Amino acid sequence: MKFSVFQVSRKGGRLKNEDRMGYCYTRESGLFVLADGMGGHPEGEVAAQMALQTIAALYQREARPVLKDVKAFLTSSVMSAHQQIMRYAGTKGMLDTPRTTVVAAVLQGPTAHWVHCGDSRLYVVRDGALLTRTRDHSHAERPRPGGGPEPVNRNLLLTCLGSPTPPMIDVAAPLQLQRGDRIMLCSDGVWGVLDDALIVHTLSSGKPVSDAAPDLAEMALRKGGPHSDNVTLIALEWETPDAPGVGRGISTDSISDGVFASTIQAGMPSETEIDDLDEDAIERSIAEINEAIRRSAARKA
Questions:
Q1: Which of 284, 293, 249 is nearest to 265 (CA)?
Q2: Nearest 10 degrees: CA dihedral of 222, 44, 114, 21?
Q3: d(CA 45, CA 225)
Q4: Neighbours of 215 (CB within 10 A)
Q5: In the 8-state DSSP scheme, what is residue 145?
Q6: Distance (Å, rounded) from C-alpha 249 to C-alpha 295?
Q7: Which end of the chain is least crowded, N or C, by CB within 10 Å?
Q8: CB-based contacts of 76: which residues, under 8 Å, 6+ apart?
């Protein structure tokens, strides 16, 4: 596989950043996950972190080096994340449970699969146009028979992880990728202030994702103003294995079967670590992963 990827998270005008995102991959498969811990409930950042860690741990166990059944994995891993959050709340005797939305994508072979719960979104842009995006589990995007009246609280979520009610999970039909396709996972801090047309235009502006992604984050922060929500996104561009040049992209060809690379933290980060995940931090993480791949390839040789 070969892809370029950039991830960024900003606290905005909130007291803390409850968003989490990250990705991991083997030689033949990649997982990208984003979770948005819900305000109004305790420890949203814990719920989001637990969602990432649970899904990534199951991926590491099952991607050897590919997932045998991607749809089953997406469904079961998200449900496992929900159960972990509920178990955590029960162990602590919490009267209200931590809650989070989640969106996750698996790229395997030339195909993308994804799942979501809540209103964290995934966009696919091809040839400068929006190919598809997820539909939020909210009153705003819930189909209304006969085009009924607009809901009073249109942004109210219908489901999430960590709620006492079992979550609704949507798994999309697999999509055959083409060279140059761009995929973005984002929290509502992005799409809530930037309309789809602007998101698509910026993603397909001709800039590499390492420029387009931070451009979107900065636009969302500026438009959100002093009370901006947390702004978090992962953007990636799919490349064919024989695409020329290396740039900032990742090629997994040299990874041996047993190697699993990840930017998803194993433990709960401190407040200073989660406030801002900037470009330098991501570059350091990618450099560490690539060095691990290099050492693995050298041992194999």
A1: 284
A2: 60
A3: 22
A4: 14
A5: G
A6: 18
A7: C
A8: 58
The answer to pTM > 0.90 is no
- Whether residue 214 has a cis bond before it, omega within 30° of 0: no
For 138, which DSSP code? B
Predicted confidence at residue 74, as pLDDT, reads 97
Q: Give the amino acid at 189.
A: G
Q: What are phi and psi of 37, to 5 degrees?
A: -60, 135
User: How many Å apart are CA 164 and CA 69, to the nearest integer?
Assistant: 28
- Those residues whose C-beta lies under 8 Å from the C-beta of residue 154, and which sit 6 or more positions away, are 138, 139, 140
d(CA 228, CA 199) in angstroms, rounded, equals: 17
- Give the pLDDT of residue 60: 92
Give how far Cα 200 sits from Cα of 34, 133, 173, 232, 241, Å: 19, 11, 21, 16, 25
- Those residues with Cβ within 8 angstroms of residue 136's Cβ, 6 or more apart along the chain or in another chain: 118, 119, 121, 157
Length of the chain (residues): 301
User: Contacts by 285-291 with C-beta closer than 8 Å and gap 24+?
Assistant: 286/248, 286/250, 289/261, 289/262, 289/263, 290/250
User: In the chain, where do the E strands start and end?
Assistant: 2-10, 19-25, 29-37, 100-108, 111-117, 121-126, 129-133, 170-171, 175-176, 182-186, 231-239, 250-251, 261-262, 276-277
User: Residue 218, Cα to own-chain centre: how many angstroms?
Assistant: 18
- Mean pLDDT along residues 40-53: 93
